[in-house]
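ugh ok fine here u go
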Amino acid sequence: MLVAFTISSNMFFVPLPKLFSSLFDFLITSIFTHGLGAVIGISVRDELWVARDILDITGIAVVSLNPKPIEAIILIFVLTFMRARTPKLRFGSVSVQSLTTNSSASSPSFTMKLNTQITVKNTNFGKFKFGDSTATIFYKGIPIGEAAIGKGKAKARSTKKVDVSVSLSSKKVTSGNLNLASDLKSGKLRLTSHETATTEQSRELRRQKQKKWLLYGIAFVIFQTGIIALFSLTVMKVRNPKFRVRSATFDTFDVVQTTNPSFNLKTNVALGIKNTNFGPYKYDNSTMYFYYGEAEVGSVVIPKSKAQFRRTKKITVALDLASTNLVGNTQLASDMNSGIVPLSSRSKLSGKVELMLIFKKKKSVGMDCTMEVNILTKELQNVKCK
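structure:
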């Protein structure tokens, strides 16, 4: 004679708190959990056969109202490491320690004692704790025995094995029950079981889950605040570009060092506009002036252009440096006799730094450089810019 029974188990999780949804543009729309069940069979020959295993995995749906790159990264993290999956409940092995049946129509009965090993497979990236609980066995809705399951813990991504023993008896089944007699005569007895937990245990589990999600929320707030602060202090921070004279060459170098000293230099000046921002710097037309003391000796127009982000824009401009405005300047004769003519240059660029193709910030950068023209070597030397 073959006796078979079915064991099914229902598990649920407390819904995720929505406390932080308005802060992060995340909306947790649903958390749903389906049942976990298994159907197994026991024969009087202590042979175990598995007819079917059914598992519905917990799902988490997350919708972003305003998707951003940082939220996409966090979403992937939530859907992998932080996603709570339903542990898998399995019967590793079942043995019948004792079995007595009476299939007579007048007083059908049975008694049996089962030894089983239940495995709890935890596929989460965190430990799964379960408390003391009981599994009540029913026949046609009538309780016929209870199995005590002690509290334990399944480590992250591991399987916990629990040994359970249960005694079943038909004492509470009405004597002369025709269904019981018929089932015993057919050789199969179908039983059901539901796992139940104490009220105190349910409260403790609920408290632990609420505490866990609160800690996750606080950690998420700190993480995103740090990312935003880092982003604001690096990518979104607008810095002043640097405008400098880099070097110069001379096409013609006409110098007179007699009683009426003078100079006329056709000069090619190399300029550099260094943009350290994470966006291009677009500047308008400007003019650069060269001075000997406070007297202007030359000027040139700098055409509008653009310095790419994190790059140095290099341009070369041609101008004439002449001493026309220095007639009668006694200091010029002294400097030319020494072989060194000190000059200075000033200019101002006005433009905008563009960030993320959306934000534009006005920035003006000035040039204030000093330099020396070496008459003997015909070179520009000692260029210093503030």
